[in-house]
Amino acid sequence: MSGHAKTSFEDAPATPYVRIDLGRVDAAIDRMADHARSLGVALRPHAKTHKSIRLGHRQRAAGAVGLTVATVGEAEVFAEGGCDDLFIAYPLWIDAPKARRLARVMDRARVAVGVDSVESVAEMVAHGIRPEVVIEVDSGHHRSGVAPGAAGTIARYAADAGFRVRGAFTFPGHSYAPQTRASAAVDEASALLTASDAIAAVDLDVAVRSGGSTPSAEFAAPGLTELRPGVYVFGDAQQVELGSCQMEDVALTVVATVVSHAGGRVILDAGGKALGADRAPWSSGHGRLLEWPDARIVALSEHHATVEWGTGERPQLGSQVLVVPNHVCATVNLADSFVVAGSSERWQVDARGKNA
Amino acid sequence: MSGHAKTSFEDAPATPYVRIDLGRVDAAIDRMADHARSLGVALRPHAKTHKSIRLGHRQRAAGAVGLTVATVGEAEVFAEGGCDDLFIAYPLWIDAPKARRLARVMDRARVAVGVDSVESVAEMVAHGIRPEVVIEVDSGHHRSGVAPGAAGTIARYAADAGFRVRGAFTFPGHSYAPQTRASAAVDEASALLTASDAIAAVDLDVAVRSGGSTPSAEFAAPGLTELRPGVYVFGDAQQVELGSCQMEDVALTVVATVVSHAGGRVILDAGGKALGADRAPWSSGHGRLLEWPDARIVALSEHHATVEWGTGERPQLGSQVLVVPNHVCATVNLADSFVVAGSSERWQVDARGKNA
């Protein structure tokens, strides 16, 4: 498909819409599965990226031990969809309604949840629910997660309260920056080993040391038992610019129409409400175009992307182009469905908006 | 409601969720309606902010002449919902499927669409559809919209092709910056008057000179016949920081739970997937807290907001706080429903995701 031609598919939805290339998706799933096998670690992909039951099953079929999710809402969707092993990698605060929802998920699947405080464990006790727990530790991203050495205290408290403690997890979010992918992976392993020692020191077995992130996965250091990358399944402009995927691997794009040439500009009808507005300080713009490596989205509003075209002939008014969003997780969360390229299939984004 | 107490409503959805204060909404609707009356201009609020049929009707009841929308999808929802006067303030590229959809909207409502090229007019002719048109001109935001002096050429072309030309419109998006609200409003009036002269010079009447934007509305200069602000209905952190609303006027918040105190931080369960990730270079952070003016969201990921608390006691784990998003249009587009504060009502976000 060339953006120079006026392409418009009667069967396709109006632009902007989300398009996935299943060949590239499957290649990405296989590559990461092979990578985890080569490291001798379990793969538990983060399903918050795709929010799709079908894609979760494809990841399991390629060898994933289970899925990671971020919310009880996502856990509900994937358990209902047949996934029998779920880790909610988030320091949930489980009040009474959430406890009831989680109990129903636990009827269908093996479930572990993240904890980073004794208070959150006590709250689960108060509501009579005891999923397995994994202690969240901070490996340098400074978000949720206790200092690694403090994992033992929470683990002991949880064990005494009747929980099975699976181990420790961390998200090395500081791998999302140029030149820090490898060092963040080292921080990750170091934090997990320290946490593991702290948990062992209170006489508990540590089955799992779980790390995350697509940018750090390539550099995962010895000590991890599990990887939780998410974005790799599609790739996005951030990953291209971080060097963790190539443009030709990007499997999800937003199809957009050129709606204006005013002032010599190129304006697309895909704005922040379709692409998401995520932009890291080091990003080259608000997104890239799959087939025009020089083009940059230099401004983004709700329904407009302003493209600086670079070299080459700019596309005609009314032609369609494939936009690579900066952060694909945000894009998927905005879409009701994926259009499967080269087919008439449209797949529902099963867990769209299930963020609570 | 105090964030210090552990509040949790059995009837409320799990956090994060969107809450609206109808008293504040109605006050904002009335204030802007009064403002437009005092200027002697028509008010045509942009419904992309609220995407709610009920709120559109409230704006009409307060005197709005019609609604503005951004997409054919939004026009479908509001026409179906009973709004009989719609302006799609966007340079639509109307292919065959969109022409059929627009024709159905035109069966229910008086409809005008934006145009900024003769090609887009020719495309409508090719598909046999002739809504009223309004020429989009650039008043300094440099997005879509031709130079004001070029409006006559497109207007004449459209008139010759059988379209009723209503006039000209612009979006002074450069009003979204500190200290430029007033100057952007002057640019807006200047561009509209130039466009109006250009359209008159090709022997067409100009019924409408339509300007936009909540930040510029206060400074709207003589020459406009119509205002199209959107955000004013709820307000948001951007408007507070631009000075176009006060924190005590903000009518929409995202209710979030404090889930982590790790490392002395305050982490909320509302991230970019609930708040939206919009952040202007001049914003003080990724959002504000309604009841804690000193607090700032200093980092945002998909499901976490990291709050720098400032002075005062930080809220307990498990307590709920009201987050004021940076850009409320993005927030609403992520939500399936509004929870109406002080009632058991939940209102659907009727046009959520209708961005095509």
Description:
Two copies of one chain form a homodimer. Chain A has helices at residues 22-39, 53-61, 72-80, 96-108, 118-126, 151-160, 181-200, 214-217, 237-242, 272-275, 328-334; strands at 17-20, 42-43, 67-69, 85-91, 110-115, 132-136, 165-169, 208-212, 226-228, 252-260, 266-268, 287-289, 296-300, 305-308, 320-325, 337-340, 346-348. Chain A is of the alpha/beta class. Chain A folds into two domains: 24-233, TIM Barrel (Alpha-Beta Barrel); 238-348, D-serine dehydratase-like domain (Lyase, Ornithine Decarboxylase, Chain A, domain 1, Beta Barrel). In chain A, helix 3 runs parallel beside helix 4 (96-108) and helix 6 (151-160) packs across helix 7 (181-200). The first copy, chain A, starts with 16 loop residues before the first strand and ends in an 8-residue tail after the last strand.
| Assembly state of the chains shown | homodimer
What is the second-level CATH architecture of the largest domain in chain A? Alpha-Beta Barrel
Mean pLDDT of chain A: 95
The N- to C-terminal Cα distance of chain A equals 38 Å
Give the overall shape of chain A.
elongated
The level-1 CATH class of the largest domain in chain A: Alpha Beta
Which class do the helix and strand fractions of chain A yield?
alpha/beta
What pattern of helices and strands is seen along the backbone of chain A? EHEHEHEHEHEHEHEHEHEEHEEEEHEE
DSSP strand tally of chain A = 17
